[in-house]
């Protein structure tokens, strides 16, 4: 069975890395073509991850002397040096309960110049001694005013080393997904790219700011050992088969990961039994807070002030809050499928239209545009599935084996096939 999972757009912008990817694709063409003829592929293919290490590393800040504390700028926070087993670290109390933003910034006297490194990343030790997790926003600024934004969650009662990639080959690839999979072997916690520039100017890194924003309690963190490292040994197959047939991350094991159809059915049956004809423990019929305050039962969902604060109220009068997916983007599928159409045949958005594109719903291409369907991202099928054949729904144009291979090799203009399944 060839499962597509979650296809996306892959745009190779680095010439060197693009050549490497094309080399990999060329070497796999024999297998790909035979698989095309058989209309099958392996669901269990995983890209190998080579044994790698960083080639260089340099300590930037370790708080073993007082001058390092002078590099730290506090915003709505306080700090102190703590020493354990002759090792010093900086303990920071962030007053986030009473301030929307609280942060600390590490700013050297002169900008850091990492231009001697081919690839650049920062690592920092972060410990969270409290009983609740801390969501961090990490801004890395260069002297031009550009910044890279990343985020991570530091679990309660934890201590680990967090990775901030600033210049690595995977950052040259726009996959259309929020954050690319791990492209080289390491034991760090990988932070997630959220916005700003992908690669700031590593010859002029001005500061690193770590922010807590919009939380209702103070947070405590202990930081140490800010280092610059030079990663090596990048896995050229890191984008191959990243999604398994159940839509899960194929390259990582995690709690409750489904490994078989039988297991999936078992989980579903258990869940259905739990939900059948009875609310979850502590919940009302409508999943409100049954053990909490009870207001008037009006028979309708509504908002109402309770003890001076607005809250959601279920039909039985119980308080509740809504937590779920914010949106599913269906209006623009070309960014996640790697396929697009002749834009002259697609209705264009009115510049004065205030309706967000995310709110439109499924914006299917009109029938007249279907024959113009082409691969806008030739590497998407291979990079996400390892499968040489993309299965598409009825009345969507498919790409022939020859056209697919030509597109993957970047040896042809966009290929159009009007064949319909």
Shape: globular
Please give the number of β-strands: 20
Main sheet, how many strands, which sense, barrel? 7 strands, mixed
Number of continuous helical runs: 7
Helical proportion, percent range? 10-25%
- The span between the termini is 17 Å
Which spans of ≥5 residues are poorly predicted at pLDDT below 50? 1-52, 385-421
Write the element-wise H/E pattern from the N-terminal end onward.
EHHEHEEEEEEEEEEEEEHEEEHEEHH
Q: Could you tell me the radius of gyration in angstroms?
A: 26 Å
By secondary-structure content and strand pairing, the structural class works out as: alpha+beta
Which range does the strand content fall in?
Answer: 25-35%
What number of domains? 2
Q: Mean pLDDT, rounded to whole units? A: 77
